[in-house]
Design a protein that fits this description.
The chain is an alpha+beta fold. Helix content is 34%, strand content 35%.
């Protein structure tokens, strides 16, 4: 059974769902990212993401349910893309569908993604979408893989 994946503009109510997704321990472990507390999360989203017209952001819907978000932004002169899905949506093609659709509306290339080297599911997803490895970055005890879509 396939899942219908769509993107739409981020709505204020989506942020509550995004916050809950970020609190999931396994998601934090895979992303090698510590969740923000509620005030920091909402400030980040309202000011740094939705409040900056240079940032692209879309809500991911899976069969009409908010599954997560996809965001692109400028960092150190390069365009980056990232996504975060709730754990209930993993392994069902939602991430691949969402990123594939997002790449159709994000025109800037090259486009980069940085992923914890241990996050094999995310690495596979990015490769399926045409990203290739261009660098490996070591920070303290963490290794990140940098991928690029030319």
């Amino acid at each position: 059974m396939s899942v219908e994946v769509r993107l739409r503009a981020v709505e204020p109510a989506d942020l509550e769902v995004f916050f809950e997704h970020e609190q999931q321990p396994e998601a934090q472990r895979r992303a090698n990212f510590r969740a923000r507390d509620r005030p920091a999360f909402f400030e980040h989203w309202t000011e740094r993401i939705l409040g900056d017209d240079r940032v692209g952001a879309r809500t991911v819907l899976a069969d009409g349910e908010v599954a997560g978000g996809v965001v692109s932004w400028w960092q150190d002169g390069l365009r980056e893309v990232g996504y975060w899905l709730g754990q209930d949506f993993w392994g069902r093609g939602v991430g691949t569908g969402a990123l594939t659709r997002y790449l159709q509306i994000e025109p800037i290339r090259p486009l980069r993604a940085t992923v914890d080297a241990g996050n094999t599911a995310s690495l596979r997803l990015l490769r399926r979408c045409g990203f290739t490895e261009v660098d490996t970055v070591h920070e303290a005890a963490v290794t990140f893989v940098v991928l690029e879509l030319p």
